[in-house]
Design a protein that fits this description.
The chain has about 110 residues and is mostly helical. It has three helices and no strands. The longest helix has about 30 residues.
Length: about 110
């Protein structure tokens, strides 16, 4: 086999040159990776679609929950259209409120009390 005397010894200058070349490659790759990173605000990202689906589902959920509560109250008390209509309107208002809260800029959030 081979022993340690067969391998050439490298000087400190050669090691330093290798480290410098490696650091240059790493810096170049990091800058290329940073340039290739997708900005969430760009039109091609899926971030906007996810936010839109979240807002739409919150709006529909508010209406559905209001309708379900109204229908349940109507079935319970035998006043079929009144509770359904009232709670559908309340569910619609809750859905709109959820949409407004979701679209409000995050900068308006007050800091938590310590």
């Amino acid at each position: 086999m081979s022993d340690e005397s067969d391998t050439p010894q490298r000087s400190e200058a050669e090691w330093a040159a290798d480290r410098a070349r490696l650091q240059q490659r790493l810096d170049r790759l990091k800058s290329e990776q940073a340039a290739a990173t997708v900005d969430p605000t760009t039109p091609g990202s899926m971030q906007g679609m996810a936010a839109g689906l979240k807002i739409a589902s919150e709006f529909i959920a508010g209406i559905a929950v209001g309708g379900a509560i109204g229908y349940g109250i109507d079935r319970l008390f035998g006043t079929l259209p009144i509770g359904l209509v009232v709670f559908l309107m309340l569910g619609f208002a809750a859905g709109v409120l959820n949409v407004v809260r979701s679209t409000k800029p995050k900068d308006d959030v007050p800091p938590a009390a310590s």
